[in-house]
Amino acid sequence: MPKQAQFYLIEKTQADNALSATEALACNLAADAWRLGKKVLIACETEEQALNLDEALWQRDAEQFVPHNLSGEITNYATPIEISWQGKRNAQRRDLLISLQNNVPDYAQSFNHVIDFVPAEEERKAVARERYKLYRQLGFEMVMEKA
């Protein structure tokens, strides 16, 4: 099975809560993947962003709950969704990387499926184009989706 990098084109900037439209979509995609039995790593740019996503996932209604933890948290069992940030990541193997980082994470090649985003803002769009090129150079099959 070829490696796949799936880019979502984001058309709006803000979601209905404290998250950006990109962050809200990342949470929903992680929840969908978990329901399909996948183990997910959400790679945030900063610890603050990771804490915001963690809080947003805890605020979901009970029927929308997704088991998750922040990298470095001590848990009795490995949770299906880990939220990391630059320089902080557990070593557990994951099926899906959802990247919110400005650069392609060093460990991206260890994943068969990566989800990334093309934000609405022009300057962030240019950075996303560079990530797109790098994933293609790394041998990923490229897929574009509208959010």
Order of helices and strands: EHEHEEEEHE
**Mean pLDDT across every amino acid position:** 90
Q: Can you tell me the overall shape?
A: globular
Strand content: 15-25%
CATH superfamily: DNA polymerase III subunit chi
Topology, element by element:
Elements: E1 4-9, H1 21-35, E2 40-44, H2 47-58, E3 68-70, E4 81-85, E5 96-99, E6 113-118, H3 122-137, E7 141-146
Parallel strand pairs: 1-6, 1-7, 2-4, 2-5, 3-4, 5-6
Structural overview:
This protein starts with a strand and ends with a strand. Strands 3-4-2-5-6-1-7 form a seven-stranded parallel beta sheet, with helices on both faces. The radius of gyration is 14 Å and the shape is globular. The mean pLDDT is 90. It has helices spanning 21-35, 47-58, 122-137, and strands at residues 4-9, 40-44, 68-70, 81-85, 96-99, 113-118, 141-146. The chain has a single domain (4-146), classed as DNA polymerase III subunit chi (Rossmann fold), CATH 3.40.50.10110. The protein contains three helices and seven strands. The protein is of the alpha/beta class and 147 residues long.
List keywords for this structure.
147 residues, 7-stranded parallel β-sheet, 3 helices, globular
